[in-house]
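New to this. Help decode the following:
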Amino acid sequence: MATPTAKFIEIAARYGNVDPEDIEAVQRWFAEELPKLSPSELRRIFEELQSADGERRARRVAVRVYPEHAPLPSLSQSPAVEFPLLAGPWRQLHRRLLTRLLRGRAADR
């Protein structure tokens, strides 16, 4: 299991005096300020994160935010998804049933 997001938020708030409600500020602190800390502080933070590995997630989960500087891809730019292997026979079955249903309605007229 992974380290809960709440632990990262807690560390940014404690070591970087970051507002725990501002998830973008937390991300920014880890990207920009964490590397500037002393080796002893980095070791302490690493050990803290490592000790939280596998902990159960807190009930309160941080709101997921997509970083502003990273553009969201459009649907047309997204890679195509392969058709599920088992969905093919179902699709054919539905098509046959629909065809029979439509023929039956046409015959009733």
Remarks:
- The chain has a mean pLDDT of 78.
- The first helix runs from residue 5 to 16.
